[in-house]
Design brief:
With about 425 residues, this protein is mainly α. It has one domain: Growth Hormone, Chain: A, CATH 1.20.1250.20. It is built from 19 helices and no strands. Helix 14 packs antiparallel against helix 15 and helix 16 packs antiparallel against helix 17.
Length: about 425
């Protein structure tokens, strides 16, 4: 395995590696679209059904609960049955859940179907990060992981641009129909073109593992193996939650979970409530949708800049820099006036909060070994999604209590500072 890793790290990046990375970007674009479709639809849905902010918060949180359980319990199966298999399963679950949401007639329909979609979304993110990190050369791994995760805000942004045109004319159901079909259409592409992780094949050694590995090595321009390296019995076992706390990983795992929890809590308060916050601030429905789009456009550039800056100044300093900058913007938001200035700040907040979170994924991919990597990333995301479940409900409660959008942003700036302290204390050797 070390010889193959060395070939990948020292050689030129191959077409196979590029295709895996591009497909992982596409999968995350679907992820971002399927997450944000409910946020973009929320103002129209609220007006049509007369839904109160508190009830809408429950709908948001049902999807986040699904994402949490998908990341914590479905994603670890990628360490058992393969990254590619889980990604394909996630496409089916995500696409089916979003398509069926277009036919929802009751609030409980929305809650159940958003939960179902969330299961696939949560597992997809962990699996694409793992697969991309295993195909990326060491010298470019931070940047490539950030590129893959940039697919999420790209999908969210593009779906926002489409939603601004579709929802006011055709209604929110049409938007869910378009998003679901776009997801399902990508299934044949993944079946035909997505390669399994070479790293996983060596460690887990499934049936026909040698043939599959040699096909991948040949497509990358490397000579195939005569036999698989000897794998330890421990590597072949299905990793459990306890494996994340063995061999001195207790402190690193706990700190990583705290950072993910706080980062996700702030991110999802922003992601789910920015359109409604903008609407309550007096913007038209179209401008309110565009506010969420501007936020996600900022996140795209934040992802790319974080990946580059982490290669230059290091992961931990880059994460802290992004989060501190974002907290300052959120604290000072209440002193701003004018729609266009607020739009610009929404973009900068998206730049910082998403950019900082991308760094946490890269930290997780580096902390855990191959045989437990999807489990480690999945549970870290699950810890984060727990914060994401809580924050939209809190956001709805704050709105129902008459708390201004500016004060809501101020309150949720402080979790970012806690995330900075947690990730800064992770030991460099880990």
């Amino acid at each position: 395995m070390n010889e193959i890793r060395q070939l990948i790290d020292q050689g030129r990046i191959s077409g196979t590696q590029i295709s895996v990375i591009v497909l992982c970007v596409l999968m995350n674009m679907l992820d971002g679209m399927d997450v944000m479709v409910i946020s973009y639809s929320a103002p129209s849905l609220s007006e049509e059904w007369g839904i109160l902010p508190k009830t809408l918060g429950v709908v948001f949180s049902s999807a986040l609960l699904g994402m949490t359980l998908g990341a914590a319990f479905l994603a670890p199966w990628a360490d058992v049955i393969g990254r590619r298999t889980i990604i394909i399963l996630c496409i089916i679950v995500m696409g089916g859940g979003v398509l069926l949401t277009a036919a929802a007639q009751e609030i409980w329909h929305l809650i159940v179907l958003r939960f179902l979609s969330g299961l696939g979304i949560g597992a997809m993110l962990a699996s694409t990060v793992t697969l991309a990190s295993e195909y990326a050369p060491e010298r470019q791994r931070n940047f490539i992981v950030s590129i893959v995760l940039t697919g999420y805000p790209i999908g969210a942004t593009l779906s926002g641009l489409v939603a601004a045109q579709i929802i006011p004319v055709y209604g929110w159901r049409t938007m869910f129909l378009c998003a679901g079909l776009a997801t399902i259409i990508c299934l044949p592409l993944a079946l035909c073109m997505l390669s399994e992780s070479w790293d996983w094949l060596i460690k887990k050694q499934p049936r026909d593992g040698l043939q599959k590995l040699n096909r991948i090595l040949g497509s990358m321009g490397h000579v195939g193996l005569g036999r698989l390296p000897v794998a330890s019995e421990q590597a072949k076992k299905a990793p459990g939650l306890g494996s994340l706390f063995n061999h001195g990983r207790v402190a690193s795992t706990v700190k990583l979970w705290i950072a993910f929890f706080m980062g996700f809590a702030t991110l999802y308060l922003l992601v789910t409530w920015i359109p409604n916050l903008a609407r309550n601030a007096g913007m038209s429905m179209e401008l309110a949708i565009y506010a969420g789009t501007v936020f996600n456009m900022g996140a795209i550039f934040g992802n790319l800049c974080q990946g580059y800056s982490s290669q230059v100044i290091g992961l931990r300093p880059a994460i802290v820099l992004f989060y501190v900058m974002t907290a300052i913007l959120m604290i000072t938001f209440g002193h701003l006036s004018g729609d266009w200035l607020k739009f610009a700040v929404f973009g900068l907040i998206g730049f910082g909060v998403q950019g900082g979170l991308i760094g946490l994924y890269t930290v997780a991919a580096r902390i855990y070994a191959t045989e437990m990597r999807n489990t480690g990333i999945g549970w870290a995301i699950g810890a984060g999604r727990t914060g994401a479940i809580v924050s939209p409900v809190i956001g709805g409660w704050l709105a129902s209590r008459g708390v201004t959008p500016a004060n809501s942003l101020l309150i949720f700036a402080f979790p970012l500072l806690i995330a900075c302290m947690a990730i800064w204390s992770v030991r460099e050797k880990d």
